[in-house]
Amino acid sequence: MTDAWVALEPGADPDERLGLLRRAHETFTSAGRVERPVRPVVAASWRRSARARVSPDGTAPVELANDDLDAYRDSHPLARAMPLFRELMGAYAHDGEHLVAVCDAFGRMLWVEGDARSLRRAGRMNFVPGARWAESSVGTNAPGTALALDRPVQVFAAEHFLRPVHPWTCAAAPLHDPYTGRLLGAVDITGGDSLAHPHSLAFVQAVARAAESHLALSGPAPRADDDTALLYALGRDEALLVAGGSKVRLSRRHSEILVLLSRHPEGLSGDRLLCELYEDESVTPVTLRAELSRLRRLLGPDLLCSRPYRLTVPVEADFTVVARRLGSGAVAAAMGAYAGPLLPGSQAPAVVRLRGRLEGELRAALVARADPGLLSDWVHSPWGEDDVAVWQALAEVTSVRQHPSVHARVRALEAELRAPAPVHGTPSPAPVRANPSPAPASATPPATVLQRPPA
């Protein structure tokens, strides 16, 4: 196959491929073995689905309805792109008896529109607004897998993990904030076997790019005035600084430095920065001075000064917004601003402490709040999918009858915690996170409110 992301190569027989895939699906779900002709991207997704204890005979949970759904999607950044989606995809969907779907970054369907007959059929498997189609919830499917991989993907028939979805084929592409690169959701087209063609994947990818351009033109860009810079460091290893009307994407080390300096507007000495940044005590001050010199050339001398090292303008960072909202008890608003762990790949001691404290406080607040929607958002995120404490909290506020997959996932995670340590030389499973002790409250300096870009 020339393109691993396209379901069928030119000239392939859909009926023949469907038969092979159904047998491969049965083999995997019964014996855990992947056989040809399953594509590597689908095989990896099936393994993630099995790891998440998704039942192949399950269905998507509907988490938002009526007024809650209307209020949520009306305030979502992708609402501004819906007229464009309808213009570009509406006629194509109606003429081809397809559906157009748009979901948020957690895989929750915001809009599902298109051919009336197809809508009725899709409704029987809960492919409806308000239902969660994250890969960790319902297994392999185009929008959920596109979000998991952050790239366009096509899923054909029995490549879907759920058997009730086998009659469908879909293609989806992720959507990003045009200024910060933050994942906003995905756009999907779903229908019959005719969508198993390279053109449908290219089409939905082009629509996603057009939507991102539309968002850039139709909404205000994140702005930093002369007195304030904006720093985005959640869910990304390379932070983004908006200052003086320009955007600067920082290296990993420069991201760590900016995070620390933004936390200490009074400045830090070279010795203090050295201790906060480097695990290796053999790193010399010369190394740090070279990094700071490169950072000053990048930012300009008017933004970074020395003796002590400090920023000359206040910095409003996304992680301070989360901490401040938690401090005021605005848990839902804090969760809405949380784009993931702070510089997740960083091993700088001070960043590791700050990342753990912020995550611990947010998790504790979510558990205490006991809101099923917020808890579900956490456990279906990449950083929360193995978080047993939050899964347990979600199980406590949901019934086994309505959400059997939640309770099955809790049992599986608890079994993993009880399992004996692996014998030396054998591979160990992915770590399961137990309930940590509550983290101490973090102090954040007063600052102006940073809007969640670009909404």
UniProtKB/TrEMBL annotation:
InterPro entries, sorted: GAF, GAF-like_dom_sf, OmpR/PhoB-type_DNA-bd, WH-like_DNA-bd_sf
Biased composition (Low complexity): 431-447
Coiled coil (residue ranges): none
Record Pfam families: GAF
Region described as Disordered: spans on this chain: 419-455
Record-given protein name: Transcriptional regulator
Span of domain OmpR/PhoB-type: 245-311
Source organism, top-level taxon: Bacteria
Keyword Transcription regulation: yes
